[in-house]
Specification:
190 residues, Chalcone isomerase, seven-stranded antiparallel beta sheet, 5 helices, 7 strands, 21% helix, binds heme C
Length: 190
């Protein structure tokens, strides 16, 4: 089963490469951490050392189909240039529990294990990409406390956690990002 999963990822690898490059990625890393030196993980958090492990978390362990829509935002947002044309943002129960009245209380951060999940949707309604923030502040792959990744719906890596959010974090720090734990959909709430 595991080898089948990996084969699917590899066979689709070329399909989304063009997409990721077009979005300013282009820094695809092929370096996988060696199993013996995987990232240290914060206590109580699933240790995520690879893109495949993160995708498995989203697909099976804490499946995104059970996540709550981002509160007080449109179910389908018109996307920003990087994430457009449309997107849908949801979060797992751990992240949702950190909110009060739909907001992140001032001075607080999302707890380790939080997932913020964005589906990028074409004008014709097809989901092409999953953009993911996974909170694990102690993880060696983390930037600003999060792992940053993009996948195709079949699990092909579009943007690897190994890049430590290099193309993501400046924009996620902009606006009110820095005061909202780098989560920018808060700025799109009603
Ligand atoms: C050009 C600016 C920009 C860049 C670059 C960018 N983002 Fe975003 N991102 C946003 C904005 C703005 C939102 C809020 C929702 C929206 O407007 O689409 C967002 C939303 C998200 C969300 C939903 C959670 C949130 O922050 O609201 C995720 C997940 C996400 N981005 C992941 C990524 C990843 C992973 C990368 C890098 C591969 C990345 N983003 C690069 C601007 C950017």
């Amino acid at each position: 089963m595991k080898s089948t999963f990996r084969a699917v990822i590899l066979s689709g690898a070329f399909a989304t490469l063009g997409f990721a490059m077009a979005c300013g990625g282009g820094s695809q890393s092929t370096v996988a951490p060696s199993p013996s030196t995987g990232p240290a993980s914060s206590p109580g958090t699933s240790p995520i050392a690879t893109d495949a492990a993160l995708f498995k978390l989203l697909a099976q362990i804490d499946p995104f189909g059970s996540y709550s829509l981002f509160p007080n935002a449109d179910a389908i947002l018109s996307g920003t240039p990087f994430h457009g044309p449309m997107d849908r943002v949801s979060m797992n129960a751990k992240a949702f529990a950190a909110l009060q009245n739909g907001k992140l209380p001032p001075g607080t951060r999302f707890p380790d294990g939080s997932v913020i999940f964005k589906e990028i949707i074409t004008n014709r309604g097809t989901t092409t990409t999953y953009s993911v923030l996974y909170k694990d502040a102690g993880n060696q792959q983390a930037a600003d406390g999060w792992l940053w990744a993009e996948f195709s719906p079949s699990g092909t890596v579009g943007y690897s956690i190994n890049n430590r959010g290099a193309v993501c974090t400046s924009c996620h720090s902009a606006g009110q990002g820095a005061t909202n734990d780098f989560v920018r959909t808060f700025e799109r709430q009603h």
